[in-house]
TrEMBL record:
It comes from the Bacteria. InterPro entries: P-loop_NTPase, Polyphosphate_phosphotransfera, PPK2-rel_1, PPK2-related. This is Polyphosphate:nucleotide phosphotransferase, PPK2 family. Residues 29-269 form the Polyphosphate kinase-2-related domain. Transmembrane segments: none annotated. GO terms for molecular function: polyphosphate kinase activity. Keywords: Kinase, Transferase. The keyword Transferase applies.
Amino acid sequence: MNKEIEQFLAVPGKKVSLDDFSTTYKGENNKEKGIQEMEEIKTRLSALQETLYAADSHSVLILFQAMDAAGKDSAIQHVMSGLNPQGCQVYSFKTPTSEEYDHDFLWRHYKALPERGRIGIHNRSHYENVLVCKVHPEYVLNEKLPGYDSVQKIDKTFWKRRYESIRNFEKHLSDNGTVIVKIFLHVSKEEQKQRFLDRIEDRAKNWKFSSADISERGLWKDYMKAYEEAIEETSTAQAPWYIVPADKKWYARLTISHILEDVFKKMDLKFPVLASAELEKLDEIRKQLMKEQ
């Protein structure tokens, strides 16, 4: 693994404290150099994506989680811009619909999984069920789960079972050829404040801001605790979490690019090799084409 990204890995089985992970780190990079390097990685990722499609043996699922204004949308836009859009599918998960509430909490996420040969990108994910729902346990009541008709009944055992469901879900996907990459964009409260102010002061960005964002900001400590526990409980060898410093958007995008390149290289995919009979047919077809006037 690239040493630069290894430091951002949430080691499976190890306690997670977000205070141990910087939000401002940029290594020895500068913005100009970082952007240039990212463009070079995009070219390599494009070639790796073609191999993924041709091999048709794996899919890649990339999950983005973060606090508001951490840069999820722009990271997806910039990092994925060099990929073939025919081989990608992006889902942004909002509040569940009544139909989705009538199924288990993983149902709508299972429906959005990429097929073999493709890359799936989930902007927010099944982790909302142990993040926003952990901070607002009253949301769980909308699921009408047997035995959980009050917030008081949503206890530690409930959350342990939900983490277990997520681990089992991701293990099943991994066992069946889906490579999972989980990105937490780690932004500071101070940087979020500045980005909120930018959205308020720039009329063209007003649409990005909601008064509800301020209410959630007031629960910052609760969210950090929920993220720490979720990452600690679900960072596994098959589906690790990366805690990416996000105060500098260009560095977050560069780091994500490095992570994806590392993941693809480890997959060691190859273009399919045709059988001898098929190669002979191709040779005959080539000869026929060469004879055409």
